[in-house]
Amino acid sequence: MRQLASGAGFARYALGDVTVIALHDGYVDLPAGRLRKPDGQPFGPDLPEEVCLVNGRLRLSVNAFLIVNQGRHILIDTGASDAWEPTMGGLLASLDAAGVVREAIATVALTHTHEDHVHGLVAPGGADAFPRLERLLVPDAELARFDACERLARFRARREPFADGADIGPGVRAVAARGHEVGHSAFEVESAGETLLVWGDIVHVPAVQFARPDLSWELDADQAEARAIRLVMLRRASRPGCHVAGAHLEFPGIGVVRDAGGRFVYTPLGEGAA
To answer: What is the pTM of this model?
Structure first.
């Protein structure tokens, strides 16, 4: 996998015969106490020194990923639009910068239904963000959460459930990754012997959770399950020929993972790198 180009809010990659475009929706600053110790308790003055705070808060990048294969455009997650902090909502501008027209996106697949992954279905101002949307794929265990959101009411008749192993599109398969949310899912993209694991919210604080996968996140629906699946996904991502794309890894959020004996090392993929 190699980076082909980058610009304001986007980075374009080649994965075999597939094009992958990382899209920046922005960032959100959250309380440092969201990072949790293995026993589920928040850190205090003993916050790991690797964690850099911005004005005393954790800064999380918010990323989405567009998969283009055989003329089909599959968008994984949609950002927050104007439904959360004003530091988010840049996804559509990032698409424009990448030269992708919104009408080209016919399939949206969600890793889960948290605000910063789903609310971008509605553009700032209230219009449909993707006017030619044909398939809206929601994890089957989260249909009730999706349907309970009034902002997304117009999409209820169009959403389709998917389960572990579902084929999302050419070379794209769903992988169960529950823990952060009841239906949290990853997507594995394969082409010409290369793999990209788009894993949603497996890691929130990359500065420390690769080396310490036992550290959890306050908003994980099941912290024990989230810790267990994090380890599973890190091992999966560290296979030869595999790359990872993370919703909260520092933009563009694509890189490689190396297993250093239970502690993992993440290296961002730079321009021209394979």
So the answer is: 0.96
Rounded to whole angstroms, the Cα distance separating 42 from 79 reads 27
Long-range contacts, 124-131 (Cβ 8 Å, 24+)? 124/81, 124/82, 124/89, 124/92, 125/82, 128/154, 129/78, 129/81, 129/91, 129/92, 129/102, 130/75, 130/102, 130/103, 130/105, 130/106, 131/102, 131/103
Q: Which of 249, 268, 246 is nearest to 258 (CA)?
A: 268
pLDDT digits (tens, 9 = 90+) for 167-178: 999 999 999 999
Q: How far is the C-alpha of 108 from the C-alpha of 28, rounded, in Å?
A: 22
Domains and CATH numbers, the chain: 2-268 (3.60.15.10)
Candidates 159, 160, 186; CA nearest to 172 is 186
Residue 85: phi, psi to the nearest 5? Answer: -85, 150
Cα dihedral value 91, 122, 27, 110, nearest 10: -90
Considering only CA atoms, give the Rg of the chain: 17
**Residue the block writes with tokens 């389960």:** 163
Amino acid in the structure at residue 207: A
pLDDT digits (tens, 9 = 90+) for 199-254: 999 999 999 999 999 999 999 999 999 999 999 999 999 999 999 999 999 999 99
